[in-house]
Design goal:
By secondary structure, the protein is an alpha+beta fold. The chain is 27% helix and 30% strand.
Amino acid sequence: MSNFKFLKSTIREYYSKRKLEEPPYLHKREIALQSLEDGVYIRHLSFPSMTKLYEFILSKKTPLHLYYSSAYYENPANDRMELKGWLGSDLLFDIDSDKYSGCNDVISICITDNYVVEGDIGQCPSGDKPVKYPVVKAKCIEYAYSDAVKLYYILRDELGLRDIKIYFSGNRGFHVKVSDDTILDLSSDERREITSYVLLESISSERLFPPLGSKKKYALVAINGEIGIRARIAKLAKEAKLGYGTIAEYVKIPYEELRVLIEEARVRIDPVVTMDPSRLSRFSFSLNCKSGLLVKPVNIDDLYEFSFTDYTPWEGQIIVRGLIDASLPVLDSKVILKRSESISLEAHIAYYLILKNLVKVISTRDFGVRNV
């Protein structure tokens, strides 16, 4: 079986189970996808129901990635944005784990040359373009989740929003979506203000907490009763047990430590995503075919420990043949590939390598699609 036929059959088998979460007002959303058949992004689609959407992706175009617009439109299928008739948009945030220190490693792989090197090279020895292979680490995804939770409470407690959902992106980060009626008609400039607030742009520790005394080396931070950004900083200070001495309900903290707290209080969102009211958003329970994992909601009230296996729709084993000699980190495993040598791998590990075109499918006898 070719890799293409395997991917087409398994992706369609997954979607045949009809697990997608329907977004509100589907008929007012633009639908978009990247097609497995030709790799092209197809936009300006519109469907009156999920049934019609399933008919399309199960018989016409197989989606590597499946999106709906954060915006609501009068005419979502119009291919000219100015004629779609914008009615409002959800508020989106994207937190990607490659923004954290030690989390943006990449490996360059040259299949023809059988050459693997750490780092991003522009060209293989043969002149071919290398495969850029990102090193995805569970601990880095947990960093991103920590920021997603931090963002959730900023939106709820500081901005008073309520309809907030967190989703694993299906690759290496999280999406946070807000659908409160109060934010739907926000302009790009107003969304920029929210972005700036979350990122703590242009925040001065001295302006946030006026200095204490003539030497201006310390600030007083309230133990209780702060609001907004000050409350965020105060909470971190209490958790870290920073500062010393008290004056009534205040604690004295050096500005050097306050600046560290401000940096910790920032949430590393992608500002472009939040400011764009026409941004596309992945369907919940769709496949992210950068990885073969699921876009899936996360319950903030649950005790969370990230595991790749919680997000895979695949089960069993797949026998594959290596196209490169390499020892590679693959999600939560280390895999040694040898050219023209077959190896049996856990389904989610093999699927990842198939999507990266680093192995060829040999046997799927012990492979299956889970009911997720």
